[in-house]
Each structure stands twice: as structure tokens, then as C-alpha cells.
Amino acid sequence: xxxxxxxxxxxxxxxxxxxxxxxxxxxxxxxxxxxxxxxxxxxxxxxxxxxxxxxxxxxxxxxxxxxxxxxxxxxxxxxxxxxxxxxxxxxxxxxxxxxxxxxxxxxxxxxxxxxxxxxxxxxxxxxxxxxxxxxxxxxxxxxxxxxxxxxxxxxxxxxxxxxxxxxxxxxxxxxxxxxxxxxxxxxxxxxxxxxxxxxxxxxxxxxxxxxxxxxxxxxxxxxxxxxxxxxxxxxxxxxxxxxxxxxxxxxxxxxxxxx
Length: 259
Hints:
alpha/beta
């Protein structure tokens, strides 16, 4: 099996190169219109910052969206528009950046997202909902594994939605990406959500597009089976547009998470 091809998304999506500039444009416009509080530091590093977008009036709670990019690409500036549905429903939204491989390992990024969630939780009261896409799906799943978040933060998490998550990291050791990720068997065991148990009482729903690469359909199924949680296979959606539901306050996903 060609593992590099298996985990290549853009090569199988028409117009893939057009998605990132479109995301960046929509995100910038939404940040401006929503009056986002930008570049809130949660750590000492230049990338360890988050944007916070708040609704009018008191927030129902906090939604944290964690971006993907195989832990090697993107930052918070591409994803602000995915706060639209949550803000429209009365939730505050935090969108963090994080350091990227090869400068850090995946386990380091997990720790940074834990710090970002902790920082945002101190700024917004109420329940916490997490969602993340691809590598971000891995990261939000890790937030409800034992020992990642402090108890006073973890106990506020009510829902988690890993979107097209990489839930078992072992196949990535067979890809060229591992020249930057530096994964080994020990880190894969600790960092793969399929080999961990989620916190009791948290509603977990895995979301994946029906038109995604087979390995991502497999990864979503593996996590759903390992955790005994729900899985939604979104018809007609691929790896790049499965996240669109978060920009639509009327979407089924938005109603399920934020209504």
C-alpha cells in the first residue's frame, strides 16, 4: 500500500488549491465583523496564541475549534468563520494556533492545546464544547483522555466532535510525513486516541465526509468503535468541505452542538 497516497487529501479534491485562500478570506471577514479579540497569549511561544470571538450578551458556554494540517501547517487565521454557527447560537469561540512539526513533536502540541483550552476556559464561564478537524480532530480527542487537562477544566467539557480525525497515528510512521513528525511506536501508543479511553460523561460524535479518502473513513470508524461513540458520515462531503457545517447556524451539526 502507498501510504503517502492514502493520506493525500488535496490530490483527490477538485480545486483543492483554492480552499486555503478562500478560508483565509472568509475568516478575516468574520473576525472583523465579529470584533474578535485577537492574539490572546496562552503560552510563551510566538504561535501560542488564540483568537476569542464572543456573542452579544452573556455566552452560553465556550466552543474551541482546533485546526488541522497534519500538525505541520496553517494557523488560527484560516478558521475564524467556522465560529459563525456557534456565535449565532450564543456561544463564545476560541480558535488557537500552535507550534508545528518538525520544531515540536505531536505530544508537545497536545500539551499546547491543553494550555489553550485552559486559557480560554478562564475567560468564558459555562460548559465547553470542542471540535477539531483532521490533526485537530486528534487533538480534541486527546483533551478528554486521562491526564491531559486539569480536572477543573476537563469536568466542564460536555461534547467533543473529532472531524475526520487521525485517531491511530501508527500508519503515519510509514509516510514521508514522518521525516517531520518524528513519530515512534512509543509516542503513537500514548498519542493515539484509539488506544486511550475518553472521559466518562462526555458526548462524543465523530464526523467524517462520505467522499473522503478510505483511510479517513477507516480512522473515523476506528475511533467510533474504540470509544463506543456515534459516527456521522456526511453525504457528498470531502476532507476540505466537511467543516462547512460550522459556518452555517442552520446546519444539523450546529443544532446538535450549540442549540
